[in-house]
Amino acid sequence: MATKASASPSTYSPSTRRRKQERPNIKDPDWVRSDGRGFHQCRPAFLRTGAVNAAAGSAYAEFGNTKVIVSVFGPRESKKAMMYSDIGRLNCNISYTTFATSIRGQGSDHKEYSSMLHKALEGAIILESFPKTTVDVFALVLESGGSDLPVVISCASLALADAGIMMYDLVAAVSVSCLGTNLIIDPVLEEESYQDGSLMITFMPSRNEVTQMTITGEWSTQKIHEAMELCLDACSKLRTIMSSCLKEAAFASNE
Amino acid sequence: MGPSSSSADLSAEMEVDAFRRLFPLQFYERHLLESIRPDGRTHQQARDTTLALGAVASADGSALAKIGCTTMLAAIKMEVMTPTTDLPDEGNLTIEFHMPPICSPIVRPGKPADIAAVISKELSDTILSSGMINLKELSLVSGKTAWMAYLDIYCLDADGALFDAALLSAVAAFSHLQIPVVSVNDEGKVFIVSEEDKAGKPGNEPVNIDKRKLVLSNIPYSLTCLLHKNYILADPTAEEESIMETSLTVVLNSSRQLVSLYKPGGPVLAYTSALQDCVAMTMQRVKELQKILNEAISDMEVV
């Protein structure tokens, strides 16, 4: 049980005596999600811009237990080693706090997230508007409660807007888990641990364009269509929440 | 209107913001002459300070501290360790201070800021030497198992006086800490006793039911001041720290005893009188911080 990622390998976090929770019987018609949500119901989203004063733009997002902060710096000078570029560069990084996960220091497992964040945002940003320079997007996951990457992506696009970086549209991201014959939207950590497959879409609703889509696990074509519809619909709803957050912030600063 | 300096004539024609950027030192000195700082504070005044306990659900104890814009999130996770043979009755404490790239434009991913390592060490020294935590309280079974408390402090927004905010969040996280109830099985492995288990399965006797809170004695509180010429500025912002480089941090405990004092060089040499002034200002600040901490704790108990 010793945690290998922990700074000192001689310590371990105590667990409960019971075995790890078994996958619930999802065929059971009475099965409900651990937080009582409907299968097609997202967690309530809390969004705020201007979380970090030292950054050019920033946002805080809280979806249930998933809490993230994203700061945007720049446009600023590119690293010296970089070649000359007519268009701007985007640089993304996601890190986890050591206490983000139930076992200390496990959050650093997600090395691929930084490049996925980059790919999801790249298509939305008008890179021509800041030639020769770099915009840095840094995310910190304070608490990991499931669907971390989609929350970070939505939060990052809000932070970019707060920094005044030109974009074609806000990027909203939502994921869906496939559990047997059920599709559940915006899964929590526990649900992600026993999913059969997962699908994530990052979407620019007002242009009707998808910037990134990932599918993992076992899916039938029929299910993929169904899940995509679900995601796109949820993204559009999330976008309205995001834009009202920006409007509120703009309204407050005008007063 | 102002003192005569090379930039004085320019200042009449220039916008305030431009003057602030081009001649930061003159900009500040002119304010200081009038006994006020650009953000409206007096020299000795600290910024508004707030504390919220229990900000992180996945940790055993946590706190969010804000001094002005400087924001610190501290969280404690309890893990189990085998005590050393020299000190069989003591647990241990590991303190780490992190500056993730989100907190400041000067930090880049993969390149930790030098200042983070310095503050990490100072915090660790201050907390361990203050005697705030009795490591014997972290013992579970003498010589067999004990708690290792991992305290991680994340700077979410860096706007000066990082050490003060970090120490405050650390102290608050410890006062919020709830140690999980555990039992030890025959092989010496530690398990968390959940609510259902308490209903009385044999072999699950909790070993620490009455030791869930740590007794904090001699809590340390700190105040950082900037020294510039004859001025002493309490609780500097990042802008002030970048312009006037000599800082002095005084740490006093709740009985007003000196715990640590850091003056990491800098161009200004402090007179003993300046030192005494800083200590006196810290005394005042300790009272404020004690009040803020107690209010945060009682807010928590009401909820």
UniProtKB/TrEMBL annotation, chain A:
Pfam families, per database record: RNase_PH, RNase_PH_C
Annotated keywords: Cytoplasm, Exosome, Nucleus, RNA-binding, rRNA processing
Task: Tell me where it mainly resides.
Answer: cytoplasm
Q: Name one GO biological process term.
A: rRNA catabolic process
Feature: compositional bias, Basic and acidic residues: 22-35
Family matches, as InterPro entries: ExoRNase_PH_dom1 (IPR001247), ExoRNase_PH_dom2 (IPR015847), ExoRNase_PH_dom2_sf (IPR036345), PNPase/RNase_PH_dom_sf (IPR027408), Ribosomal_Su5_D2-typ_SF (IPR020568), RNase_PH (IPR050080)
Start and end of every Exoribonuclease phosphorolytic domain? 41-165, 169-230
The record, for Gene3D superfamilies, names: GHMP Kinase, N-terminal domain
Question: Which residues does the annotated region (Disordered) include?
Answer: 1-35
Q: Which domain of life is it from?
A: Eukaryota
Q: Which residues cross the membrane?
A: none
Biased composition annotated in UniProt, kind: Low complexity: 1-15
The molecular function GO annotations come to: RNA binding
Keyword Cell membrane among UniProt keywords: no
Q: In which compartments does the protein localize? A: Cytoplasm; Nucleus
Gene Ontology CC: one annotated term: nuclear exosome (RNase complex)
- SUPFAM superfamilies according to UniProt: Ribonuclease PH domain 2-like, Ribosomal protein S5 domain 2-like
Family, similarity comment: Belongs to the RNase PH family.
What name is this protein filed under? Exosome complex component RRP41-like
UniProtKB/TrEMBL annotation, chain B:
Where located? Cytoplasm; Nucleus, Nucleolus
Q: Is the keyword rRNA processing in the record?
A: yes
Q: List GO BP terms, alphabetically.
A: exonucleolytic trimming to generate mature 3'-end of 5.8S rRNA from tricistronic rRNA transcript (SSU-rRNA, 5.8S rRNA, LSU-rRNA); nuclear mRNA surveillance; nuclear polyadenylation-dependent rRNA catabolic process; rRNA catabolic process; TRAMP-dependent tRNA surveillance pathway; U1 snRNA 3'-end processing; U4 snRNA 3'-end processing; U5 snRNA 3'-end processing
| Example GO molecular function | mRNA 3'-UTR AU-rich region binding
Superkingdom of origin organism: Eukaryota
Q: Name one Pfam family in it.
A: RNase_PH_C
UniProt name for this protein? Ribosomal RNA-processing protein 43
**Organism whose genome encodes this protein:** Nepenthes gracilis
